[in-house]
Design goal:
binds manganese (II) ion; six-stranded parallel beta sheet; inorganic pyrophosphatase (n-terminal core); 326 residues; 12 strands; alpha/beta
């Protein structure tokens, strides 16, 4: 399969990206696999904004969209056009398109993203790595296009901002993030309701899974590194899978003294998805790069092949080398 490499990628400014969006039509907007609030909020906010100026668009998610996003993620039109304009939002690497990579991986016309690790797989790229969420970029683009916001668009953007910042708690939050959030309060977004739904609501099966995961917790390197494991068996026993598990990786945040929180999630007989959360001064994206992955300074990931013991040893080795260097 063809994968676009760096040379073909043109970096766009905000103004050029706004013009691109105004000059094209028949959009297919792609999110990343295991969708989170930012990729979905960004995709739908862009979808509603493009609709607002008479463009035809369709949002396609590689996985089933969790029901909790129903308040903004409605069914979109279906694009019949044979040559749609393909946009990817919050997708740092074409591999993150999951089931859609084969079909769209080499065909993305425009990527809008905030990951410093973006692999420049798209023909055009708008990248703001200072943005706390891709939804920040979308908000600015909508403004640049002079498209009006409405309640549902504002809700989608708020969801992206809030979910990528742990409800405005992470170090990625800037004055700009909060000013955008303030602007969204001009609309009927019901932020408290969104916050409860996104951050404070857990299913019974997830509580069961979390107790198993906490039972498996291991501490290393003078308790500065915590390792949580989510095995196939735990997922099978509790019925939790996919995006149910997104909260597990942030558990390390609440553990005193931990600056590297590792989550190993089994994704196959011989494969684990590593999610790493680090706290100052450790850099998660540096550590995950050595494991073949990438991400942000505070949150990064990689997919590592091997049995649990092998994967754990590899990850701990990478963490240790970085811990030794600080
Ligand atoms: Mn994001």
């Amino acid at each position: 399969m063809m994968r676009k490499t760096n040379e073909g990628c043109r970096k766009l400014t905000l103004g050029q990206t706004a013009r691109f969006l105004k000059n094209h039509n028949n959009y297919v907007i792609l999110t990343h696999a295991s969708p989170d609030g930012d990729t979905l909020g960004s995709a739908y906010a862009l979808y509603y904004a493009l609709n607002e100026i008479g463009k035809v668009a369709e949002v396609i998610c590689p996985d089933v969209i969790p029901k909790k996003y129903d308040y903004f993620a409605r069914k979109t039109d279906h694009i019949e056009n044979e040559n749609p304009t393909i946009i990817a939002v919050d997708v740092a690497d074409s591999r993150l398109l999951g089931a859609l990579e084969e079909e769209f991986g080499g065909k993305v016309d425009l990527c809008i993203d905030h990951h410093i690790s973006n692999t420049k797989y798209a023909k055009n790229l708008y990248l703001d790595d200072d943005a706390a969420a891709c939804a920040e970029c979308i908000f600015e683009l909508i403004g640049k296009m002079r498209v009006n916001l409405n309640d549902i668009t504002a809700k989608a953007i708020y969801t992206g901002l809030a979910t990528d910042t742990g409800c405005f708690k992470y170090s990625t939050v800037t004055k700009k993030t909060l000013l955008i959030c303030a602007a969204l309060y001009d609309y009927n977004i019901n932020a408290a309701e969104i916050n409860r739904l996104m951050f404070d609501t857990k299913s019974k099966k997830l509580i069961e899974l979390e107790s198993m995961v906490l039972n498996s917790a291991e501490f290393h390197f003078d308790d500065r590194c915590m390792v949580l494991t989510v095995t196939d068996e735990m997922q099978y026993k509790t019925g939790c899978s996919g995006t149910d598990l997104e909260g597990i990786a942030v558990i390390s945040r609440s553990v005193e003294g931990v600056i590297a929180g590792v989550t190993l999630k089994q994704t196959g007989d011989d494969e684990f998805k590593v999610s790493l959360r680090t706290y100052s001064p450790l850099d998660a994206s540096e550590i995950c790069k050595t494991l073949g992955g990438g991400g942000h300074k505070g949150a990064a990931g990689a997919s590592v092949k091997g049995d649990l013991a092998t994967v754990k040893a590899k990850v701990l080795d990478a963490v240790k080398r970085n811990l030794d260097a600080i």
